[in-house]
Amino acid sequence: MSSSFSSVGDSLIKMANGSTFGKGTPPGTEIGVVMEVDGDTARIKPQSSAVCDTCGSSSVCFPSEGESPLIEARNEVGATVGDLVSIERGEAQRIGASLVLFGLPVATTVGGTLLGSSSTQDVTGGAATGAIAGLALGMLLISLINKIVAQRSGLNPVAKSILGRTEVVEHGSQPPLPGTP
User: Fold this and answer.
1) CATH number of the 8-89+157-165 domain
2) Which of 28, 52, 165, 180 has the fewest Cβ atoms surrounding its Cβ within 10 A?
């Protein structure tokens, strides 16, 4: 490994000390490392920021220490594996995704509860059964919508700029800490 800006740890420290993280990035912009490139699509591992520490849903993006899902983004800047890039998502995309992700299961659960309680003589049992069925329907619909959205490249996030370069380590292994051999 080279010692100048070569590990993910070094790049994260440099970014954390600059305006790349936190309030220095506009809403809808994330920073990540390109892990794979396939044609005009890049699979990017997002980096947590100071904003993530205050988010109640950060466990969705980062389920356990050091893990994060890969984001598929249009590679408009020609980034290669190891590039540190900014990823942008449109505001309409974020609002629409939030409505689908949170609103649809609530609506189908409420609808199932009302339908279940009014269609049986056991109001409580019918309501519970209807709520479970409605929630399951909502999750199924989210899955179907996700498949449709994934096929439309115009709705995917976009890699907008290359911020630097870093060394990509194998999945599951940790980059060396700065100052360690």
Assistant:
1) 2.40.50.140
2) 180
